[in-house]
Amino acid sequence: MSPTFATPRLSVIGANHRSASLSLRDQLFVDDGAAAEFLGELRQGGLHEALVLSTCDRVEVWASHADPDTAQSLVGQALAARVGIAPAALSGQLYRHDGAAALRHVFAVTASLDSLVIGEPHVLGQVKAAHRLARDSGTCGPELDVVLQGAFACAKRIRSETQIGEGPVSIAAAAVQMAKDLHGDLSRSTALLIGAADMGELVAESLLSAGLGRLMVTAPRASRAEALATSLNGNVVGFENLREVLADADVVVCSVGTRNITLTAEMVSAALKKRRRKPMFVVDSGIPGDVEPAVNRVDGAFLYDLADLEKVALEGRSAREQAARAAWGLLEDEVAHFLKGRAARVAVPAIVSLREHCEAMRDAVLAEHPDSPEDATRLLLNRLLHAPTETMKSVAAEGPEWQAMEKTLRKLFRLD
Q: Counting Cβ atoms within 10 Å, is residue 194 exposed (0-12), middle (13-18) or buried (19+)?
């Protein structure tokens, strides 16, 4: 397959979590409000088809341009302007992919195979949002659009045929998954955050992001509880009322870390009795632990500490890595299919011209012999074959190109 015909005019220029520091990516970040102006600058510079993708992992421009060097120069200037440095100072921080390599990269990013967290479910939505912004800004032309449609189809196939997005990959995600397994829809659940250590806050944030219905916050220091409740949009409860509110909690996240037991088996047992044995998921994220280990022996209580959750997360990461290997195989298949389809479309204009040429000859001979189909078809064949026959004789007489032409001729008309 000829690269000239099959390879799209596509370039990717940017910085990601592997090539640039977080501080630089923060400086380069193009939010939705600034995207139209940024794309407008690229269009004014001559880059008429471009999309900007800004996430926590990457800041990239996907562009279609006849000259990749020009595309890189325009993007480099626009990004350097955001940081306030000379383009030359930024050039070593950026990478560039062109043609088939760029296509493979776009497919991989859209399918979340190039993310910091493989299989991260939000990436496809981020790419679709970037596509909409480019379309609204008038910088998503036919070349770029057909690439994106191919990327979306690839991502959909990978999601449906692999388990790339399944299984938690972080401690907080593992806690959310266990809570869902126990209680189902978290919108009907209440969580109680005890203490204000970082890991407890992270787990609470993840529960809220997963749709948690209600969050209560308490801590030995009332000021810390109030600040955290404000940050998380939760309700403050007095630490002295811990025993009473415990019965309302479907999920308890204990994150005090005072070297003293905050939650005892007796407290949990009493709460479960009030709950009529409706189960309670308890996360002990304190270091050292805040929950009495005997809680795990209380009927209806499910206690997980950081080591338990890390084990669940490791299993999730392992499952995703296995799925990723299968996903890359599907991606390579989709890239090959896209390039093959593109090469086939390149032939369409020539096919149309050939058909029109033959139809014109057919109309002419029918006009010359309207009453004799035999004479008309014989004349049509002679005229159709005259120019190709003369060309073949000429090429065969010259020698070197004849073998390739004969091979193409036999393939074209299936003479063998």
A: buried
| pLDDT tens digits along 244-269 | 999 999 999 999 877 789 999 999 99
Residue 367 is predicted with a pLDDT of: 85
- B/e letters for 136-159, b = 16+ CB within 10 Å, e = fewer, are ebebbeeebbbbbebbbebbebbb
- For residue 391, the model assigns a pLDDT of 82
Ranges of CATH 3.30.460.30 domains, the chain? 3-161
pTM, two decimal places = 0.64
56 classed as catalytic: yes
207-216, 270-279, 362-371: which has the minimum mean pLDDT?
Answer: 362-371
- Mean pLDDT for the stretch of residues 199-221: 93
Region 3-161: CATH code:
3.30.460.30
Start and end residues for every CATH 3.40.50.720 domain found in the chain: 171-314
Q: Are strands 190-194 and 214-218 parallel, antiparallel or unpaired?
A: parallel
Compare 361 and 102 and report the one with higher pLDDT.
102
The matching CATH number, chosen from 3.40.50.12780, 3.40.50.720, 3.90.740.10, 3.40.50.920, for 171-314 is 3.40.50.720
Backbone angles phi, psi at 254, to 5 degrees: -100, 120
- The structure tokens listed for 27 are 């400086």
- 299: number of Cβ within 10 Å: 8
13 pLDDT above the threshold of 90: yes
